[in-house]
Amino acid sequence: MKKLITLFIILISFSLNAQSTPEQMIEDFFSDYQSKGVVQAIDNIYGSNPWVNSQTDAIINLKNKMSDLTEEYIGKLHGRDLITKKEFSGKYVIYTYLVRYDRQPVRFTFEFYKPSNEWRIHSFKYNGDEFEAELEELTRLYNLDLENKN
Fold it and tell me: What is the distance between the alpha carbons of residues 120 and 125, in angstroms, rounded to a whole number?
């Protein structure tokens, strides 16, 4: 019986440790997003930060705007790809994802902060139309750079 309890405690500690990483929090966010909806996904990810109230005006506005990302408006969600990961001093990290829908890509940006021992969400943003404009601008800059090299 003692071995079973010890094994159970070890498994719980590994589980708690695994869920505290930014990568796991992002996985949980996307899982919640697809199965429980945008409101629950945002509430759950912001639940990692005791300094953020999920009912502030900014978060309520984010939930309302993201509610537009429905199949009727933007099409089916086909997946996500990590665009960038930027880490600063091992205590702040930014993950940017290209989220693929039928109609258009959308950028999701997650910022995490680790003030002491636990990671917490610092900020979450998404950009739809702005992202497309940025991609067009990057393409123009890339093409200009290629022309200058030739």
Answer: 15
Total residue length of the chain? 150
Rounded Cα distance between 128 and 68, Å, is 11
Tell me how far CA of residue 127 lies from CA of 90, 97, 98, 143, in angstroms: 26, 11, 10, 24
Structure tokens at 51: 């300094």
Q: How far apart are CA 53 and CA 59, in angstroms?
A: 8
Question: At 69, phi and psi to the nearest 5?
Answer: -80, 60
Strands 120-127 and 105-113: antiparallel
Measure the CA–CA gap between 29 and 58, rounded to whole angstroms.
Answer: 18
**For residue 17, what pLDDT is reported?**
42
* pLDDT at position 6: 42
